[in-house]
Amino acid sequence: MSTVRAIDEEKLGAFVGRVVTECAAALSVPLVVIGDRLGLYRALAEAGPLTSTELAERTGTKERYVRDWLVNQAAGEYLNYDPETNRYSLPDEHAVVLTDESSPYFLGGAFQVTPPLIMAQDHITELFRTGEGMAWGEHDHDLFPGAERFWRSGYLGNLVNAWIPALDGVKAKLETGATVADIGCGYGASLILLAKSFPRSRFFGFDMHQPSIEYARAAAREAGVADRVVFDVDSAEHFPGTGYDLITFFDSLHDMGDPVAAVRHARETLAPDGSLMIVEPMAGQRVEENLNPIGRAFSAFSVLCCTPNAIAQGGSALGTIATDQQLRDVVLAAGLSQFTRVATSPTNRVFQARA
Question: Is 9-100 a domain of CATH 3.40.50.10490?
Answer without folding.
Answer: no
